[in-house]
Structure formats: C-alpha cells, structure tokens
Amino acid sequence: MKIDFTTATFKDFENIEGFDMMQRADIYYDFLEYMKTNGHRYRLQNNTGCSSIMNIGENNVTKDIISFVTSDYLGMTQHPKVKEAAMRGIEEFGTGSAATPLIGGYYSYHNELETKIAGFFGRRQEEAVTFTTGYTANSATLQILLQKEDIAIIDMAVHASVYEGCILTNRKTFPHNNLDALEHILKTSEQQFRTKLVVIDGVYSQDGDTAPIEEIYKLVKKYNAYLMIDDVHGVGILGQTGRGTIEEAGLLDKIDIITGTFSKTFGNIGGYVIADKKLTNFIRFQSRQQIFSATTPPGTAAGIVKAIDLIDEEPHLRTKLWENIHYFKNGLDALGLETGTTRSAVIPVKIGEPRTTMDVGKMLLDRGVYTNPIMYPAVARKDARIRMSMTATHEKEHLDKTLNAFEDINKKLHIAKK
Ligand code: PMP
Hints:
By secondary structure, the protein is an alpha/beta fold. Helix content is 40%, strand content 16%. The mean pLDDT is 95.
C-alpha cells in the first residue's frame, strides 16, 4: 500500500496493511522528513514555560511568539502564589511520591487535595479521588466501572480518554449533542444492558461548544441510566462561581460522576473524579491505575491546592479571560472568519481543508503567532481548523497583532466564510 504524502493525515499511518511494526515506523519516519522539508513542524520546543508570550525553537534558531496553544486559561502555571505553594511542597516533601497510593504514595498533600477538590464541588472528601492525569481519570474510571454486560453511551465528540476507557465494554456513540439520537439509544438499550452510563463533555475540546446538560440529565433519569461529565474546559471558566458547565446547569449535586483535570485551569498536572463515596472508594481501591501507578508529586498537589483557592480568591482572573474572549471573537467575526458555536476559552477558526489549515498555521507562525492546526482524526476530514486557547494573561496588543495576521492571511488564502 502506498501512502500519498501530499494528502496524508496521521490516521493513515495507524494501520498500514501488510507491513510489520518496523516497516510502518519507517514509512512514518519518511513522512515526518517530508513534512519537515516542506516547512511543517509537529512539535515546537518551548524555552520559557506557559505564557501568552513564549520563546520557541532549538539550536539558536529561537524567537518570541504570541502563544494560543496552552490551556493555562487563568495563568495559574505562572501565578506567584501557586509557584510558592508548589516550591514549599517540594522543600517539605521532595520531588516525587515514589510509590502508588496504596503502598506509601499517599501524602498529606494528597489528602488535602481530595478535601479541597471535593469541597470545590460542594462535596465531602470521600467523594473525590485523584489521578496523575485527567486522561487517566476518565479512562481508569470507565475501565473499572463498566464490564461486558454494561454499555457506555457517548457523544461522538468526547475526548480520546473516554474512548480508551470503553475498550472493554459495549459502546454506542450518538451524533454530537443530538438528543433524539441519544434518546433512541437509551430506549433501545434499556432491557439489553445492565449499567447504562452516558458520557459527555461539559465543554467540547475542539469546538469549544457546550453540552445541553439539563436536557441530557432528564433523558438519563427517564431511562434509568447514569451520567458522567468531563468538564476539563469548563471548570474555572463557566458558571457563576467558576464551577463550570454543571454549575451553569444547576446540577452540581445531581451528576453521578464528574471528571476533570488539574492541567488546565489549575495550572499543574493530575486528574480527579467526583462521585458518590461508594463509587469513589471502589475506584480508589480497585482501579489498576490507582493500584499500580505512582501518585502526583506531593509538591504538585500543594500547588494545585493553592490554585483551587485562587478561583474564589481572585475572580478578576476569570473576568479578564472573558474580556479577552469577547474582544478576540468579535475581531474574528468582523473579519468574516467562522468560529462556530464556541462559548468558552477554546476558539476555533474553521477552515475545512486540512492542507490550507496547515498553511494558515505556518503563516501565522511566520507572523509570530503560535496556534494549533487541527485535522482528522481529531475532527471530521473536511472540518479542519486553527484551534486557539485564550488565557487571562493575553494582552490587547497580542490580540490585535493576531487579528492583523489573520486579516493578511485571509487576503492571500480567502479563508473567510461569511
Ligand atoms: N478531557 C478533555 C476534554 C481534554 O481536552 C483533555 C486534555 N486534552 C483531557 C480530558 C485529558 O486531560 P490531561 O491533559 O490532564 O490528561
């Protein structure tokens, strides 16, 4: 089988029929070389840490650019109080946990973190369990809770970690945010499966749009199912007090399982699950990832604890983020660029054609603006886009410079849809 490098996407390399592992890796290596010689890079080195201004590049070819590629929505990775708390944690406990939670890797900061994140959602400590990443929080929870007699009913746009968690159970997907399709699956699954768990995101990671949580919750109850919501892009950003999309829906005390990450709004790394204490204890003591994998460094847990406090102590960060989102989105709209249905800090500029999207990404970078060109399989084949994440640390001049770059690129490539 021959792959046409001029049109290939990552997905084409997943399973090239008729070749062994080394041959497949060989073909892929040639593709990376081909892309490099055509000026595309898949991974840029950041020399400065998360910020709206980053220094990127290697081997003395570096430059400062405006960055829209991190999910450091409130700027917590650089917040002096978060850094101070994490450094104090390292001073006290050292750099690593060096053990899994059940055999010595559960430190007092992990205990404090469970209490803090549970309290953030109005729950008690036992109702929270933490993981080393948000990815694992999703995949491990689904893996341990669902068996072959059960079914996960998932919105097709959920995160890859949810798909991974469903490998060992039955899985049905419904078209994105389509309530009729969801109801049909719920109705037809009612007798057939033991546990029916509907899994959705609060904010969807590629379009930045939100789920109709209230309507989905009603359907889930009507058909005796359970609801799990991953709100990694909503927490800290949406809801009157920053508790995310579930707070907006008024259902913080009703959702069966809430999952999230400490790597975005909370500026560190780790994941969490909030649920009934019987479920969290089952996950805590049964999940393979809890039993066989080390906990986050205690210093990191100390930093997260402070970041959680800051959501309430410094609401001006959220206000600044929203000022930036509105200003930038209005600017893109004025240029006729298509931003879809976003209502969060994830802002896509929809282009459609994957190669044009990559060209736009490269032209933006040449103009000093770092974004993520996103294409199949992360989104549908003809729905490629430039994905940007807004933060509270962007300044108006960064946004104006980026809007000017889009205006110039549009003159050359005619990417405006309106
Ligand atoms: N869920 C969603 C919707 C995400 O976008 C991400 C991060 N890309 C994750 C889960 C995983 O979070 P983490 O980076 O903490 O593993």
